[in-house]
Design goal:
CATH superfamily of the largest domain in chain A: Porin
Number of strands of chain B: 26
Distance between the termini of chain A: 12 Å
CATH architecture of the largest domain in chain A: Beta Barrel
Shape of chain A: elongated
Largest sheet of chain B: 16 strands, mixed
Structural class of chain B: alpha+beta
Number of helices of chain B: 8
Strand content of chain B: 25-35%
CATH superfamily of chain B: Lipoprotein localisation LolA/LolB/LppX
Structural class of chain A: mainly beta
Oligomer: heterodimer
Radius of gyration of chain B: 21 Å
CATH class of chain B: Mainly Beta
Number of domains of chain B: 1
Radius of gyration of chain A: 28 Å
Number of strands of chain A: 26
CATH architecture of chain B: Clam
Largest sheet of chain A: 18 strands, antiparallel, barrel
Helix content of chain B: 10-25%
Distance between the termini of chain B: 65 Å
Largest interface: A-B, 93 and 84 residues
Helix content of chain A: 10-25%
Shape of chain B: globular
Number of helices of chain A: 9
Low-confidence stretches of chain A: 1-33
CATH class of the largest domain in chain A: Mainly Beta
Number of domains of chain A: 3
């Protein structure tokens, strides 16, 4: 048996069956007659530490310790709530509304020492992070294959990932963590303090991913565990598996069956490896039928599994931690949903065609405000231990209507540390995550009446009024408020097709053997998160298309061919990460103006050295609105057992204009050098 | 007892005269093909000095001896220059076996029968493809068993590589550095299936609906983990001026991707010195190479028999030589009475790293028994020598239908300029339960479709 891979024959089983026996070289022609005469067990795998060295002073702003307002003092001015009278009447049980012509900028509240804080400056009470490393992973993978017969085998791949590094981790709010009892809403395992790197948890289910076992610092799961049956042109796979479709690399046009697992290194792994370990596996039945030499039918039915985002305060988290997310995957009954699809793929010489039809739940899900469910009065004191008169006033005003806590529980807010502390912070983050700060506030108010009215919230007419209302409530909240959003999933139909053509030209010329590929998908009435996080999601017909040019070109006789790929993607409704384009181009002081479409260009090449011991890679993703990702890398494979990969990721999200107008705005923290040293066995 | 009627230099002078001629006529004493067709034995076509190592060396080397650095000068003219250098300077040894007289032990039985049966029916059509008299694709066996030109030699080889209608080879590959260290070790599978010129698998000679194709061929890597699932599928058109369609499964992408069809000089995996173009010394369509010409004739020592190792349960071979004793397979050679050296140039590959290749054919079987390719400066670049075998040894035999299996057994692919060696061996089975198979129609669905590549791919 080779050193690289062990092959263990199941001798005992072989002997157990009367008719079986390994083929012997003394008169037979291979193959016994027993059911398990061909049984074979094989396995292989690797172990690989991975380290990402942080090369910028920026931290992930979506985490507590990367928040720029940890270092910025923001002014706040509270105002008399314009609906104070109505709110009081409402709190007393009266339906009468007073027609007072006030707004959230009409009557500023004064500072009264030891009594009322009407105006202050606030700085988030969290020390900024200063990470030297973004990633410290130890990854081990083992693949096992059990061949029962020539037609039937079991394939399993077990992946174990641990993160045992030391970071400038968030470890709670220090003295402020006692404020108002600390964070009450959400899953304590995710929002209770130190980051939970790996556990994927949703409301009502701590283990929504089948065949996955995880703790805060480790994860073990089966990306594959399925029975594979092949007979003639029929191939059947039953079990946990990932499915990849389409020809385009990195741009997911026809690659719709599976969501992505963005824990660990998010999308910032070596770009040219595409999403090799990112697709979320799911229990599925997949059938392939080779109709002719060139025509393949490929269909599946699959349990719905959502995209998994990084947890709060993990390095590549994509949801601001001021939000508490309630994932309704289990409570909403989505765990029992199925997706299914069919792909036809045909190759006719230089031409290739494929078409897909998929009915699925969009694994990315959509978000909107949700009632916090946190029954907790506003704190009587602020973080500085001074009396919180505003909060106390709201509490007293709600005594007869069940208490402020009860009414706050009906709003999407929670008065606990770690939320948004100022209107400046609110609008900065709204723009950064492609949301509408002003109308988002209104949605939070309007969608949760009468509870919002009872706590003196009301809609605003413009940015300035929103600033007034937000700062008032942050002061009343004892310093800040946390927002609660929920994640839901919607069914959709994806119709797609692709055409590829390989050109014929003068041998060796740039136009010879150029592979041209066009792919497009159409999704009618796709559901998107509204930039307001309002209860009414966006429903829009969506086109996603990509043009891919691939070319292998030899420039020298000494070096193998260089692989080039140039890709262009056009999206009509959302960006590459699924965010609605309507939320684009906001600023710290203005609501988003939106974009009409998104366009991306990818250029990449790989240059293997002779014998492929070294391989240089280069990838770049360019958003014409001012963002670029550049990733050069080198792969070195000195022997069969060892491999060393290093790559540098550079992201510039402000080449021109507003960073919130391009895909990469907010990702500038991820400039890093990644080193991976693998040993395979 | 044969009477020696010809002096020791007779054959050498004969071959020198023949090499200068544009038309080939194999055999010294009589046309080789005539001798083979009459008796299946080449002996009548050659003088004694070409029929045994003892005759050639006047008894200084005998059957059963080892050729080593100590005695290699005696047979220097019988070795390709690289093989000679390996023996003289790198510790390679060659065990000498008796020359096989029976033609039927030197190729698959059914292939040879078809060669004899279909002799004289082949011609080139207007595009240079081998067809029958009525213009249909070839019907089996070697179309030009008595080749008159270099291109006829290559045409026969390109038409059928492994001489079986379908083969799945379980292969172990070892890549060694110039220091003799084993740097990479792979397990892979190689499948090939002929939809035309079939002599064994029904329907024959054609698979209906596939007459426009010459072969389906794939290679996939089973281990180690980093290479697991890497695979390439070539679908060859029958037209020998057209490149095969090339598809690949890239584990990182988890799907089949189309590749440019001229990617035939690229490393398939790290450490390997093999290209798709190297397969069977004729890995590309016939007319993507050109300027075929005969450049030499004469006897040669080659491993045309005895390559099977039934003493190992998985048919694995022992090694020797080189700095670590692992560079060369233990190899058995025999005197081939007449080899024909043919050169060709990669005319459709303007940036190929090779400028030409020289392939030695056994004149009896027209099998390739050695190859050297040259870089663009004209310097020797890589050397290939393989070993064939009838899978029959003493009391052990591995059957292919009604006859012992015949196939290749091991291969050396040596990069002369770097000193790196790639060794391949055909084994009984690789991990994953992929065992060698021959003339099994299941090879198509198992290894030669897009669906198969996805199934073989990494998970």
């Amino acid at each position: 048996m080779g050193k690289g891979q062990m092959c263990a024959r199941i001798v005992v089983l072989s002997l157990s069956f009367a008719c079986c026996g390994m083929a012997r070289a003394d008169g037979d022609s291979g193959g016994g007659s027993g059911w398990f005469s061909d049984m074979d067990v094989s396995f292989g795998g690797f172990i690989r530490p991975e380290v990402a060295l942080h090369t910028t002073d920026k931290e992930n702003p979506l985490n507590e310790r990367g928040n720029p307002y940890n270092s910025i003092a923001a002014p706040r001015q509270a105002y008399l709530p314009p609906n104070s009278g109505t709110a009081l009447l409402s709190a007393l049980g009266s339906p009468i509304k007073l027609p007072l012509p006030l707004n959230w900028n009409s009557i500023p509240l004064p500072n009264v020492p030891l009594l009322l804080t009407g105006r202050d400056t606030v700085q988030r009470p969290v020390p900024p992070a200063n990470n030297a490393f973004n990633l410290h992973l130890l990854r081990a993978e083992v693949e096992i294959g059990v061949k029962f017969t020539n037609d039937l085998k079991l394939v399993g791949r077990l992946r174990a990932v641990g993160d045992f590094g030391h970071y400038s981790d968030f470890e709670g709010y220090g003295p402020d963590s006692r404020i108002n009892g600390g964070i009450s809403g959400g899953d304590p395992a995710l929002y209770g303090g130190a980051p939970n790197y790996f556990q994927y948890r949703v409301e009502g289910d701590k283990h929504p991913n089948p065949l996955e076992w995880a703790g805060p610092n480790y994860m073990v799961y089966f990306p594959s565990l399925f029975l594979d049956y092949n007979h003639g042109p029929l191939n059947v796979r039953l079990g946990n598996q990932a499915i990849a479709w389409g020809q385009a690399i990195f741009f997911r046009v026809l690659d719709v069956p599976d969501g992505l697992d963005l824990r660990r290194h998010s999308v910032l792994d070596y770009a040219q490896e595409e999403y090799s370990d990112k697709r979320v596996p799911a229990p599925a039945l997949r059938l392939g039928y080779q109709i002719t030499d060139g025509i393949l039918a490929d269909g599946y039915v699959q349990k719905f599994q959502p995209t998994v985002y990084g947890n709060p305060n993990t390095q590549y988290n994509v949801v601001p931690v001021q939000f508490t997310v309630h994932d309704r995957y289990s409570e909403g009954g989505y765990e029992d949903k199925l997706g299914y699809g069919l792909r036809m793929k045909a190759n006719f010489g230089q031409w290739g065609f494929q078409a897909i039809a998929v009915r699925r739940y969009n694994p990315d899900g959509v978000f909107r405000w949700t009632a916090s469910g946190v029954d907790k009065n506003l704190p009587a004191t602020t973080s500085g231990s001074t009396p919180n008169l505003l909060g106390t006033f709201v509490n007293l005003a709600n005594v007869l209507s069940g208490g402020a806590g009860k009414n706050l529980a009906g709003t999407p807010f929670e008065a606990s540390p770690g939320g948004v502390y100022s209107a400046d912070e609110w609008f900065h983050y709204a723009a950064m995550v492609r949301l509408d700060g002003t109308n988002g506030l209104n949605a939070a108010v309007n969608d949760f009446m009468p509870y919002t009215t009872k706590v003196f919230a009301s809609p605003v007419a413009n940015y300035q009024q929103a600033v007034g209302e937000l700062n008032t409530f942050f002061i009343a909240g004892g310093g800040d408020l946390r927002g609660h959003i929920e994640r839901e999933y919607f069914q959709e139909t994806n119709l797609g097709s692709g055409v590829s053509y390989v050109t014929d030209g003068e041998p060796g010329s740039i136009l010879d053997q150029l592979i041209i590929n066009v792919e497009a998908t159409y999704t009618p009435a796709r559901v998107f998160t509204a930039p307001t996080l309002g209860k009414n999601f966006l429903h829009q017909n969506d086109w996603v298309s990509a043009l891919v040019l691939e070319k292998y070109q030899r420039f020298s006789q000494d070096f193998p061919a260089t692989y080039f790929v140039l890709q262009y993607m056009h999206r009509t409704r959302d960006d590459l990460f699924g965010r609605s384009l309507r939320g684009y181009s906001g600023t710290d002081t203005a609501i988003p103006t939106g974009e009409t479409n998104a366009n991306y260009v990818v250029f990449a090449f790989q240059q293997p050295f002779p014998q492929d011991i070294y391989r240089i890679g280069f990838s770049t993703l360019y958003d014409p609105h001012g963002g670029i990702l550049v990733q050069p890398g080198l792969q070195f494979k000195p022997t069969g057992h060892w491999s060393i990969d290093g790559f540098y990721t550079y992201i510039n999200d402000h080449l021109s204009g507003n960073p919130n107008s391009n895909l990469l705005g907010g990702l500038g923290f991820a400039n890093e050098f990644t080193l991976r040293v693998g040993y395979q066995f | 007892m044969r009477v020696k009627r010809y002096g020791h230099d007779f054959s050498r002078r004969h071959f020198l005269r023949q090499t200068g001629r544009s038309l080939l006529s194999a055999g010294v004493l009589m046309p080789l093909w005539k001798a083979l067709a009459q008796s299946g034995d080449a002996s009548r076509a050659y003088p004694d000095e070409l029929l045994s190592i003892e005759g050639y060396t006047r008894g200084r080397i005998k059957t059963g001896d080892d050729i080593t650095a100590a005695n290699v000068e005696l047979v220097k003219d019988l070795l390709e220059p690289i093989k000679y250098a390996q023996v003289a300077h790198m510790g390679r040894r060659l065990r000498v076996a008796r020359t096989t007289a029976d033609l039927m032990r030197l190729s698959p039985w059914e292939y040879l029968e078809a060669t004899l049966r279909n002799h004289g029916q082949a011609r080139f059509d207007g595009r240079g493809n081998v067809v029958t008299a009525d213009g249909r694709p070839w019907i089996g066996g070697n179309p030009f068993p008595a080749p008159g030109t270099a291109v006829e030699l290559f045409a026969g080889l390109t038409l059928s590589w492994g001489r079986h209608d379908a083969s799945f080879y379980a292969i172990k590959e070892y890549d060694l550095s110039a220091d003799g260290d084993l740097r990479f070790e792979y397990e892979c599978g190689w499948a090939e299936l002929s939809p035309v010129a079939r002599v064994c698998i029904d329907p024959k000679p054609y698979w209906p609906g596939h007459e426009d194709k010459l072969r389906f061929q794939s290679v996939f890597f089973q281990s180690p983990d980093s290479a697991h699932g890497t695979s390439f599928l070539n679908i060859w058109p029958y037209d020998q001026s057209t490149f095969p369609e090339l598809y690949g499964y890239v584990p990182a992408f988890k799907r089949i991707r189309q590749f440019p069809t001229d990617q035939r000089f690229e490393p398939l995996i790290p450490g390997s010195t093999l290209y798709l173009s190297d397969a069977w010394a004729a890995g590309d369509p016939l007319y993507t190479w050109g300027n075929y010409r005969i450049v030499g004739r004469g006897p040669l020592l080659a491993a045309v028999s005895g390559g099977w190792n039934p003493t190992h349960p998985n048919w694995e071979h022992a090694t020797h030589g080189g700095p670590r004793g692992k560079t060369f397979w233990d190899t058995t050679v025999e005197l081939v009475p007449e080899a024909i050296a043919v050169e060709a140039e990669p005319v459709r590959f303007p940036r190929a790293p090779v400028s030409r290749k020289r392939v030695w054919f056994d004149a009896r079987t027209l099998l390739p028994i050695g190859m050297v390719s040259y870089d663009r400066r004209g310097e020797p670049y890589r050397s290939f020598d393989g070993a064939y075998a009838l899978y029959e040894s003493n009391s052990k035999v591995f059957m292919d239908g009604g006859h012992p299996y015949w196939s290749w057994a091991h291969i050396h692919a040596f990069d002369i300029q770097t000193g790196c060696m790639t060794r391949l061996e055909q084994v009984r089975e690789i991990s994953g339960g992929h065992a060698m198979r021959v003339n099994d129609t299941g090879i198509y669905d198992g290894y030669l479709t897009s669906s198969a590549l996805m199934r073989l791919g990494s998970t």
